[in-house]
Design a protein that fits this description.
Blueprint lengths: L9 E2 L4 H7 L2 E2 L3 E6 L5 H16 L3 E5 L4 H9 L5 H6 L3 E5 L13 H9 L4 E5 L1 H5 L5 H19 L2 E7 L10 H5 L2 E10 L2 E11 L8 E5 L5 E3 L23 E2 L4 H7 L2 E2 L2 E7 L5 H19 L3 E4 L6 H10 L4 H7 E5 L11 E3 L5 H17 L6 E5 H8 L2 H16 L2 E6 L4 H7 L5 E8 L2 E8 L5 E4 L8 E4 L2
Parallel strand pairs: 3-7, 3-8, 4-5, 4-6, 6-7, 14-19, 14-20, 15-16, 15-18, 16-17, 18-19
Antiparallel strand pairs: 1-2, 8-9, 9-10, 10-11, 12-13, 20-21, 21-22, 22-23
Length: 477
């Protein structure tokens, strides 16, 4: 039957992001995966078996009461998992449990043991224990089954086992006997937030693994994938390149290819409200905000006029421009930063002081830069305004100022980008009707999340690239 495995040995699931959260399952352990219908339990279990075979040469068995073999293969193929080829190579076996037992008959684990032993399987899924439990005569019989499963397959044969547990939508999650004897308990959650689908995983228990971050975002975009918390610092941006996305016919690029595909870029002359939740740092929202500006400076030879948001300094902007490798001549020619810092310091030629307490002066300074740029033959401007900084100076007068600037841009082309942090929530409510596009950047379980309010989009997990400065947007589906 084999030997008992070390309690300290772990087996990786093969799902990269998931293994960063839990550092693997205990080898020869019993893992309960629970959740409401449609939460991704089968997708996780399938990825566990499939990756075990391909990445770690560990044959697997999938025992199911819920669907026939061909439907299982078709479902998994939708995630890019070709179980048919693994079956043909003798590395995978699908076990249809309804053909083994009849209701009311005492259930043993003999057939499952035979399937595991015949191919020296190291990974097993039982889908689902909830359906199987209806075939037991009593709770005692169910406990005998679980103890047999745990001792004969998991422990003695070193076969790591996932037990899927269905939780009805209307039922609150409660621990059962299976959770108490399991080495790991994973809860998958699917809910609707702001009329959008959201998914997450909660690691409730995992023996032998330190769980520092029990909650993580997940998506079934191309199969089950988890996105552990990610700390975006200044160092993240160093050494990465930025290649501007292709031009969009008659429109401005967002600077991010995936976002261009989703919303089609920005129409010239429009106003974009970029709403930033308070727990999102500069380095995190810069993943989205910086490409918007940089792509237009580089590709469009357009002037960018900035009034910075609170918590940022003109040095931050210059540093980001250098990180994105914008040529110095483009920085000097196309970037103007307007500040009102009352300290004596030597400023670069493209950083100009002014008073932000007078809305008329603010407008005239912006208008003057636009006129100079257009006279020099440059493209229509990008005007980026830190709403919280302006609001702290202008209060109610900011609304009229934004309307004037938006009308200016609408007449000459270009874009107005309103960078809005919720220091003054009433301003965001007042400016939302003015905006042609409204994109929100928030944070959940340590990951940056983006979604469109106008036009409406699903949730996207902002996934930084390992090589360049254009993030991928992973749709939560």
């Amino acid at each position: 039957m084999g030997v008992t495995m070390s309690s300290h040995e772990v087996v990786l699931t093969g799902v990269e992001g998931f293994d960063k959260i839990i550092t693997g399952f205990p080898r020869g352990g019993l893992i309960t995966v629970s959740g409401n219908p449609g939460t991704g339990k089968t997708a996780l279990a399938g990825a566990f078996i499939y990756n075990g075979i391909l990445k770690y040469n560990e044959p697997g068995v999938y025992a199911s009461l819920l669907e026939d073999e061909e439907r299982f293969y078709d479902f998994m193929l939708g995630f890019g998992l070709d179980f048919r080829s693994l079956r043909d190579r003798g590395l995978f076996k699908y076990l249809a449990i309804p053909t083994l037992f009849e209701p009311g008959v005492s259930i043993s684990v003999a057939d499952i043991v035979d399937a595991v032993e015949s191919m020296s399987a190291k990974r097993l899924v039982i889908d689902s224990f909830t359906a199987m439990s209806q075939m037991f005569k009593s709770p005692f019989e169910a406990r005998v089954f679980l103890h047999s499963l745990l001792s004969k397959i998991a422990r003695q044969m070193g076969c790591t086992t996932i037990l899927i547990k269905e939780i009805p939508n209307e039922q609150v999650y409660e621990y059962g006997f299976e959770e108490f004897i399991s080495d790991g308990v994973i809860f998958l959650k699917r809910e609707i937030i702001e009329d959008r689908l959201w998914r997450e995983v909660n690691i409730l228990k995992m023996r032998g693994s330190e769980i520092r971050e029990p909650l993580a975002c997940i998506s079934l975009y191309k199969g089950f994938e988890a996105y552990p918390p990610l700390n975006i610092t200044k160092e993240f941006y160093e050494g990465r390149k930025y290649v501007t996305p292709p031009d969009l016919p008659g429109r401005f690029s967002t600077g991010i290819s995936d976002l261009d595909k989703e919303i089609g870029g920005f129409t010239g002359g429009t106003t974009i409200l970029l709403e930033i939740d308070p727990w999102v740092s500069l380095q995190e929202y810069a993943l989205v905000y910086s490409p918007m500006l940089v792509s237009n400076i580089i590709r469009g030879n357009r002037p960018v006029i900035m009034i910075l948001s609170g918590g940022t300094d003109w040095r931050d902007v210059i540093n980001f421009a250098k990180i994105f490798k914008i040529p110095e001549e483009l920085i000097n020619d196309n970037l103007t930063i307007l500040i009102d810092i009352e300290r004596k310091e030597e400023l670069p030629q493209n950083v100009e002081k002014m008073s932000m307490f007078d809305p008329e002066e603010v407008f005239e300074r912006i208008f003057g830069v636009v006129e100079r740029s257009l006279s020099a033959g440059k493209g229509p401007p990008i005007i980026s305004l830190g709403i919280d900084r302006l609001a702290s100076r202008l209060r109610e007068a900011i609304v009229e100022l934004i309307y004037r600037i938006s009308n200016l841009v609408r007449n000459i082309g270009g874009l107005t980008i309103l960078l809005a942090k919720p220091l003054y929530p009433w301003i965001i409510e007042r400016l939302a009707p003015l905006s042609d596009s409204h994109i929100k950047i928030t944070k959940k379980h340590g990951r940056v999340i983006l979604y469109g309010v106008k036009p409406r989009t699903r949730f996207f997990i902002v996934e930084p690239s390992e090589e360049d400065l254009i993030p991928r947007l992973i749709p939560v589906i």
